[in-house]
Amino acid sequence: MTAKALTPSTLYLVATPIGNLEDITLRALRVLKECSLVAAEDTRHTGLLLRHFEISKPLISCHHFNEAKRSERILSELATGASIALVTDAGTPGISDPGERVVKAVIKAGFRVEPVPGPCALIAALTASGLHTDEFHFAGFLPHKSGQRLRRLRELALIPGTLALYESPYRVEKLMGELDVVFPEQRVVVARELTKKFEQFLRGTPRSLIEHFQKHPPKGEFVVLVERSGEEGKIETASMPSGEAQATCG
Ligand code: SAM
């Protein structure tokens, strides 16, 4: 299919790289070049991305704290026939990022929403994890408070399919401790710094990953996956090298 001109009065959800700038798609670049306006989570961050690709475009901010109000501005622009690209700092808008509210408002007002698919940390981690990909449950970030986190993990333990979580470097070790309580025998894959120079997949039990992080304090961005297929997902501890997580580095 050849490229067609952008459709007026349309909100384009444009996925952007999660680390490696080569991951921008040809279509994302064309939409960013041809749209009337870019709505960005952080205009400074997206300004740098646009400059890298020699694109100059009016930018407005659209982040978690102004998304509801910003939707009104986006609707009024769409009403004049504008085509608007919505981008976040990295990855796919709406996935643990602003987007959902704007999309709902745009659909409700009767305008078009068009996805421009591309990088997403969840999908990159899951597909390379070696865990089941046919059924998975993405729960984003856990709450911050300890009691709520354990309660949430226990609820998630009732849901079948590989469990996928996002986590910050400040809480990933804590998360391994919580997984050790709720999923002590399950296979866990920690995907770190995806698409970047120090991309790494760590595989092991929660306990072996705690030991890993005690020796190598966590740095960077993390996706955490937990195998959830009953007996099959449980690690045969005898096959694990001396209780240490297995790290494969890219
Ligand atoms: N919308 C994004 C997406 O499509 O993946 C996710 C945005 S969310 C605010 C950011 C979180 O995604 C990070 O804290 C981390 O858990 C995960 N993440 C983003 N980039 C990553 C990367 N390069 N490697 C590992 N995890 C990443």
Written overview of the protein:
This protein is of the alpha/beta class and 250 residues long. It folds into two domains: 10-116, Tetrapyrrole methylase, N-terminal domain (Cobalt-precorrin-4 Transmethylase, domain 1), CATH 3.40.1010; 121-248, Methyltransferase, Cobalt-precorrin-4 Transmethylase, Domain 2, CATH 3.30.950. The protein has eight helices and eleven strands. It has a six-stranded mixed sheet with strand order 6-7-10-8-9-11, sandwiched between helices. Strands 3-2-4-1-5 form a five-stranded parallel sheet, with helices on both faces. α6 links the parallel β6 (136-141) and β7 (162-167). α3 (67-79) runs parallel beside α4 (100-108), α6 (146-156) packs across α7 (172-182) and α7 (172-182) packs antiparallel against α8. It is elongated. Mean pLDDT is 92; it is low at 237-244. S-adenosylmethionine is lined by residues 18-19, 88, 90-92, 95-97, 120-122, 166-168, 191, 193-196, 221-223. S-adenosylmethionine binds at residues 18-19, 88, 90-92, 95-97, 120-122, 166-168, 191, 193-196, 221-223.
